[in-house]
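Incident log, support desk, overnight shift.

02:14 A customer reports that sequence design results differ from what the structure should imply. Their input is reproduced verbatim below. On-call engineer (initials T.W.) acknowledged and began investigating.
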């Protein structure tokens, strides 16, 4: 047995304990120090967050353009992504940064409205297509594989004006767009992601309305959205499977994000509450795709609450048998985004009925500990052990599947080049991931850092920076400047050592 493996085995794992009382593990713990050789490392971005050029060369408007222009007050510093990191012009600088770090692949998204300005395939914007071909060629020339997200929250405004993700037609609009992308870009793409983080699309976009298109319909529209997102993903995946897989030899999946939910105590009630919350957050999307339907606890809870609230039927729209069969097994690997964790406790009143919204439909309480370190936003607590627990739970719950971490990273407000906190975050999160691989037998094959460059962090504007490279958003040339964390990741990729020395 190799010395590195022995070292790894001797390191103590903290999994299996309940988080409450684990405050000594709250920040930056290291349980493993060697990143296995088989783990590919990549970086990620999304179109609206980096591209800029919001209306150049025939691009159509999408919901984030519209939201940011119509409601600047909803964005920190009244910022918008009109120019952002200007990757439309500086994509070569992005690729140069990736080359410097030595990543294996780049996960980025296509802006639907850049290639289909009004969302439909009768009007293709060649200049938009050409832009992505330039990016693919630059990646190819630098030996970096492409992982492409078809949808990272930017539905064309023309389609949103017809109801967007609430209109059943969105399923076919999306499938047409996906098929076109497979045709146009298939030869360049190694892995496809149909949709990024349905949770944010539906619960932020149509539930609480905090994100574009900012159409609040808590407890109702957010479930209609979820149903359509899952059907759109499934149909787009099946088109890929039937019409493209054999020739393209690539893979396809959906990215589902999840926090970790830790029971507050060792009580049975809190354990059940935490599991319920996991099912409402991750299971809501993973269960249909992996097992074939909404999680039973969602079906039961929402039916019970809906009745008590005076609705005639459950607010959770059911899937038909055909739809269950359509959605089930539409993934080639599990793609998981993860950033933070929560504590969960049960609501013990048996007659409890919450408000009409997805969060309260879970019927449990969740919170974050003030002792946990915080990144640039209040919700963003640093809890490395939560990552390890989440990975083990995904394996236990959904079986021994390949897992690709499609996003993990941390924000700060300054974009400092001396970002030791980011090194600490990446190191400790990776360490807990490696722990789950070695000790938990979890089959993680790739790890993706969000993000290669500072970019537009949605409603936090430019006030939250997550890049390995700093970008000064007031410099028209937007130079990409290496932070310490980029050198750290470069070294990890080369030496596989998560610490200064191993
Ligand atoms: C999203 C990214 C975002 C990141 C950091 C993820 O939920 O996919 O677009 O920038 O989190 O907040």
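02:41 Re-run completed on a clean worker. Output:
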């Amino acid at each position: 047995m190799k010395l590195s493996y022995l070292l790894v085995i001797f390191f103590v794992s903290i999994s299996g304990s309940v988080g409450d009382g684990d405050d000594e593990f709250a920040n930056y713990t290291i349980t493993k120090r060697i990143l296995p050789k088989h783990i590919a490392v990549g970086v990620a971005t999304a179109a609206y967050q980096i591209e800029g050029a919001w209306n150049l060369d025939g691009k159509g408007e999408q919901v984030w353009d519209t939201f940011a222009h119509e409601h600047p007050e909803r964005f920190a510093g009244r910022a918008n992504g009109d120019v952002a990191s200007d990757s439309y012009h500086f994509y070569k600088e992005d690729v140069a940064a990736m080359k410097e770090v030595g990543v294996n692949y780049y996960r980025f998204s296509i802006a639907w409205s850049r290639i289909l300005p009004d969302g439909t395939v009768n009007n293709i914007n060649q200049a938009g297509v050409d832009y992505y071909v330039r990016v693919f060629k630059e990646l190819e020339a630098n030996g970096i594989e492409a992982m492409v997200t078809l949808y990272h929250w930017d539905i064309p405004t023309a389609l949103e004006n017809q109801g967007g993700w609430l209109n059943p037609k969105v399923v076919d609009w999306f499938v047409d767009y996906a098929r076109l992308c497979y045709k146009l870009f298939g030869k360049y793409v190694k892995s496809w992601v149909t949709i990024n983080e349905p949770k944010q699309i539906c619960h932020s976009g149509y539930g609480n309305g905090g994100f574009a298109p900012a159409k609040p319909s808590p407890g109702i529209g957010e479930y209609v959205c979820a149903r359509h997102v899952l059907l759109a993903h499934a149909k787009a995946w099946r088109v890929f499977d039937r019409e493209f897989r054999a020739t393209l030899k690539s893979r396809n999946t959906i990215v589902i994000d999840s926090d970790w939910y830790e029971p507050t105590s060792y009580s049975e009630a809190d354990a059940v509450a935490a599991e319920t919350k996991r099912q409402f957050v991750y299971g809501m999307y993973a269960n249909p795709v992996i097992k074939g339907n909404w999680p039973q606890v969602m079906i039961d809870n929402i039916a019970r609450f809906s009745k008590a609230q005076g609705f005639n039927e459950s607010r959770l729209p059911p899937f038909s048998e055909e739809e269950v069969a359509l959605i089930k097994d539409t993934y080639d690997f599990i793609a998981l985004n993860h950033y933070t964790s929560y504590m969960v406790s049960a609501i013990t009143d048996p007659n409890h009925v919450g408000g009409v919204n997805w969060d309260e439909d879970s019927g449990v309480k969740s919170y974050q500990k003030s002792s946990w370190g915080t990144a640039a936003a209040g919700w963003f607590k640093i809890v490395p052990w939560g990552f390890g627990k989440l990975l083990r739970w995904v394996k236990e719950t959904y079986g021994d599947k390949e897992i690709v971490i499609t996003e993990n990273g941390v924000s700060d407000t300054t974009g400092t080049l001396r970002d030791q906190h980011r090194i600490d975050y990446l190191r400790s999160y990776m360490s807990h991931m490696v722990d789950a691989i070695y000790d938990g037998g979890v089959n993680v094959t790739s790890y993706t850092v969000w993000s290669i460059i500072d970019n537009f962090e949605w409603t936090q504007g430019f006030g939250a920076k997550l890049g390995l490279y700093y970008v000064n958003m007031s410099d028209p040339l937007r130079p990409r400047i290496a932070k310490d964390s980029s050198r750290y990741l470069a070294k990890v990729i080369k030496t596989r050592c998560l610490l200064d020395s191993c």
